[in-house]
Amino acid sequence: MKQTIQNQKDTTAWIIQVWLSFILSLSATSIGIIYLPVDGWVKGYMGMGVLFSIGSTFTLAKTVRDNHEAAKLTARIDEARVEKILTEHHPLK
């Protein structure tokens, strides 16, 4: 009746695809900003916007992951409590 909880592990191909996609999108956006026909202040403003967007995206992803893992841990603790109560309960006593 015991279930083993396995951690989800991403494949190497998925990790490579994610990093390549990130590097490609950041590079394309940076090149697009560099070649815009505007002055340096506008390019700087757009570059800062890209950097802040990337930073906030990493922070959001980490927060969502941490909340999900905390919920999984809470569910496992609750499941262990219920299992303990069920094993200690004898209907004929």
Which of globular, elongated, flat, extended, rod-shaped describes the shape?
elongated
What is the SS-derived class?
Answer: mainly alpha
Tell me the series of helices and strands, N- to C-terminal: HH
Q: What percentage of residues falls in helices of 4 or more residues?
A: over 70%
Could you tell me the number of beta strands?
0
Total helix count? 2
Runs in which pLDDT lies below 50 for 5 or more consecutive residues are none
Rg value: 24 Å
- The overall pLDDT, averaged over residues, is 86
| End-to-end distance | 23 Å
- Which percent range describes the beta-strand content? under 5%
Biggest sheet, in brief? Answer: none
Describe the structure.
The protein is built from 2 helices and no strands. The protein has helices at about 10-35, 40-90. Helix 1 packs antiparallel against helix 2 (about 40-90). The longest helix is centred in the C-terminal third of the chain and has 49 residues, at about 40-90.
Short structural description:
By secondary structure, the chain is mainly alpha-helical. 77% of the residues lie in helices and 0% in strands.
